[in-house]
Design brief:
One of its GO terms (molecular function) is RNA binding. Keywords: Hydrolase, Nuclease, Signal. The chain has five helices and seven strands. The protein is of the alpha+beta class. The protein has two domains: 48 residues; 135 residues, no CATH class. A five-stranded antiparallel β-sheet has the order 3-4-5-6-7. Strands 1-2 form a two-stranded antiparallel sheet. The radius of gyration is 27 Å and the shape is globular.
Length: 205
């Protein structure tokens, strides 16, 4: 749509450039210039009104578990969920400035050290990290738990952020491997969840 707007603006500019209105007087020439100016302003306004495409990215955390560990359901998070969590994390980050150690300890905003996995998901992977390209520590903030009955009080996913220019900015989304029960090797490891576009639903004929 944005490309079409650019083509339309270019076409109008070419049309206006070749527009000839008979003008034998100074007032006629002024009218000619006014018409050209109005057409150009209209084309610019059309381009400005062109809406941006929204990114319908989703992050899906697979379910897992079962005997002897409890069964956990999959969780799907939208772009809205992620943006809301980042916004809440920034609000909490400001609130904790000058807070006591007790308040910091109870806060849902935690330091994220991007430690090496104790038990990598892929066989043979050594010293793997949640976000390999992230340098230095960051912050983690929980995403909402959409299946509290099956998955417990805390959900499996977190947004990971780093501070830049006084603001926490998203670096990625991570989650626990829900196939690993409490106390299992690598139960506390965080693995990156890559966002993907949802598959279009087919309309029934």
């Amino acid at each position: 749509m944005r490309f079409n707007a650019l083509v339309a603006a270019s076409f109008l500019f070419t049309l206006v450039s070749g527009l000839v209105i008979p003008s034998n007087t100074l007032s006629g020439r002024d009218t000619d210039l006014e018409v050209r100016q109005d057409l150009l302003e209209d084309s610019v306004e059309i381009f400005r009104r062109e809406p941006r495409r929204k990114q319908n990215t989703q992050w899906k955390v697979p379910g897992g578990g079962g005997k002897p560990a409890p069964r956990r359901l999959s969780e799907t998070y939208t772009r809205k969920d992620v943006n809301k969590a980042v916004k809440a994390a920034n609000t909490e980050h400001k609130r904790l400035q000058g807070a006591s150690k007790t308040q910091i300890k109870k806060s849902p905003l935690k330091v994220f050290n991007n430690n090496k996995h104790h038990s990598p998901q892929k066989p043979g992977a050594k010293n793997a990290k949640s976000l390999p390209k992230m340098k230095g520590p960051g912050y983690e903030y929980p995403l909402p738990n959409k299946n509290p009955k099956a998955n417990g009080a805390k959900g499996p996913a977190r947004v990971i952020m780093q501070e830049r220019q006084g603001k926490l900015r998203l670096k990625g989304v991570v989650a626990h491997d829900q196939k690993r029960g409490p106390g299992a090797p690598g139960a506390n490891d965080h693995f990156r969840i890559h966002g993907s576009k949802p598959k279009p639903t087919r309309r029934r004929k």
